[in-house]
Specification:
Structural class: alpha/beta
Largest sheet: 7 strands, mixed
Strand order of the largest sheet: 3-2-1-4-7-8-9
Shape: globular
Number of helices: 7
Strand content: 25-35%
Radius of gyration: 18 Å
Helix content: 25-40%
Distance between the termini: 52 Å
């Protein structure tokens, strides 16, 4: 059985500030030293998950860089024999690879809570201006959207690691059977109590092994189809733009909605609208 590991950065042990997760090339409030340290911890946590998955019986590992520009992993720190993806222009974005034949499980590493979550360090959904995503009346985050895409291809989410708020949200939405490892306890949007990085990696490795051993019992995540999706922004100008897209309706000042026949349509429509909403707010 092959597995895909989707690795983000905001949920990695030791991370609690945007400074740490922002590649210096984009400018702004960044630190090359802080970012380099965070990307190394991100890669080491992905490596721990890969080692655990191999011990649990996986025969092939694809590590998918899923943070920001998606060029963060330091591949020399990954176990030999794994494959990895880099670059943001991927058809399935954070879960690229779940469509490949033989993939039987998806693992989340470095995942964070959804936008608006209380005590979730760096909690957000996709970008800084999406306020909420709702599918069939249920609020969700990146973990839910990605799980639905994986489910579209018959692949279950079996493991997740990140902050404690995200782990609680994942258990609530995707099911308590998902093996979860909290590597830090959120105190606020920009503070957390962290495990020692070595302990975090040990727990990730053990959890991933346990999850992959039991993957044959896991069921892909889904919802009822067709599904109604709602997307809320932080400003009405963003909804103004999205309302003009055929098939999209205005719900209120900052919210738009649409109906999707399946998870792939829902996900790609979401990505398109997130891009359409990138407008200047100063006129």
């Amino acid at each position: 059985m092959n597995v895909v590991i989707s690795v983000d950065m905001e949920g990695v042990c030791g991370v609690s500030s945007w400074v740490q997760v922002s590649p210096p090339e984009f400018g702004g409030l960044v630190s090359g030293t802080e970012y380099q340290a965070a990307r190394e911890r991100m890669t080491r946590e992905a490596a721990a998950a890969a080692q655990g998955a191999l011990a649990g019986g996986a025969t092939g590992i694809l590590v998918n860089d899923s943070h920001d520009g998606m060029r963060n992993l330091l591949p020399d720190l990954l176990p030999e024999g794994v494959r990895y993806t880099s670059g943001s222009d991927k058809p399935l974005s954070m879960v690229q690879g779940v469509q490949e034949p033989g993939v039987g499980a998806l693992l989340f590493v470095g995942y964070h809570a959804r936008a608006g979550s209380v005590r979730g360090p760096l909690a957000h959904t996709w970008n800084g201006f999406i306020r909420n995503v709702r599918v069939n009346g249920r609020d969700t985050g990146e973990y839910g959207l990605n799980a639905l895409v994986a489910g579209h291809y018959g692949v279950p989410v079996v493991f997740a690691a990140g902050d404690d708020v995200a782990m609680a949200e994942i258990g609530d939405e995707l099911g308590e059977e998902v093996v979860r490892v909290a590597v830090k306890e959120g105190l606020s949007s920009f503070a957390a109590v962290h495990l020692h990085p070595a302990e975090a990696r040990r727990r990730i490795r053990e959890g991933a092994e346990k999850a992959v051993r039991a993957a044959h019992e896991a069921r892909p995540y889904t919802t009822s189809w067709p599904a109604r999706a709602e997307l809320a922004f932080n400003h009405q100008a963003r909804a103004d733009q999205c309302e003009r897209v055929p098939g999209v309706e205005r719900v209120d000042g900052v919210t738009v909605a649409w109906e999707s026949p399946d998870a792939l349509h829902l996900f790609q429509t979401f990505r398109m609208l997130a891009k359409v909403a990138e407008v200047r707010l100063d006129g």
